[in-house]
Amino acid sequence: MSEGVRVLLSNLWFPSRDRVVKGVIFLENGKIGFIGETPEPEHELSELQYDFQGHAIALHGFSAIVDLVEYPFRRLGINDFSTLSRDELERLTEVGFANALANGITMPIVYTEHLKPVEKISRELGIKVVIIHEGEVAEKSGLYYLLVKEGNIYFNDEKIGVLSDITCSPQRITEKCRIMDLRSTGSTISSLSILYESGVDAGRLYRILVEPYRITRVGEGVVDVNEIADLQVIDLGNPLKASIIRHEDDFWATVSRFMDPDIVFVNGESYYERGEHLIVPVKNITGILDKISIK
Questions:
Q1: Which pTM does this prediction carry?
Q2: What's the pLDDT tens digit per position in 204-241?
Q3: Are strands 269-273 and 276-277 parallel, antiparallel or unpaired?
Q4: Which residue, 28, 154, 181, 196, could crosslink 256 as a Cys pair with Cβ 3.0–4.6 Å?
Q5: 177 vs 59, 103, 169, 204, CA distance in Å?
Q6: Half-sphere exposure of 260 toward its Cβ, with a 13 Å CA cutoff?
Q7: What single string gives the DSSP state of each residue in 252-293?
Q8: What is the distance between the alpha carbons of residues 24 and 215, in angstroms, rounded to a whole number?
């Protein structure tokens, strides 16, 4: 999508700053330009238009710690990539980005030894990334760095909290949690659905998944005017995802299923739509896996 292309999402449910509403979301120049029950006349001239007839929900994009370079090797106990070339590490990183987006994670957080491929691919794809690091790094435009020092985590010299307190996993949700670590789940969000049954409120999980936007001051992590247009849409017209939404309780009960999104926007641009990766190249990596397996 070229710069300036406008997008109109109509007849879907979404959480605004203070309540859940059914209406429209208008995207322009990488931002949310309008939300309301009905579009303004000029919005109906948008180059891209989606009308969901009330059978869809939109959420703000998520931000969580995920495997990027390491994604294909999750749970295999493999962490020595010394035999891989720079190009091979970058291809692995592209696969990690593709997985993150397909899970609605529009601003991945990485905690990895392989920063250079992450930094390069992030810039090439135009995807924001938060990097957790220890010690000095060469900070680059468009990337956000969280420094870990003596067990504490800082952003721009401001102490955010104790790393072990503000990060949590689906197996351990704490009151102080502000960043979800999904690496133990294979970097997917589906396991979060079981937390609803154990009494963890879906709205609270949603707030944790957008909290890094506030920590890094990228935005408020809400669907509202002038917020960055990082959005995910779940099409409830799909019989496998179908749900009835009559009011706010139904909305959050549907969110508690934590289903993979059908459309994902980053900076107002469609990166993923109905199984198709529109921006991120998904290249064959079997040769890389074979190389690791015979090491």
A1: 0.93
A2: 999 999 999 999 999 999 999 999 999 999 999 999 99
A3: antiparallel
A4: 196
A5: 20, 20, 9, 10
A6: 14
A7: HHHHTT-PPPSEEEETTEEEEETTEESSS-----HHHHHHHH
A8: 28
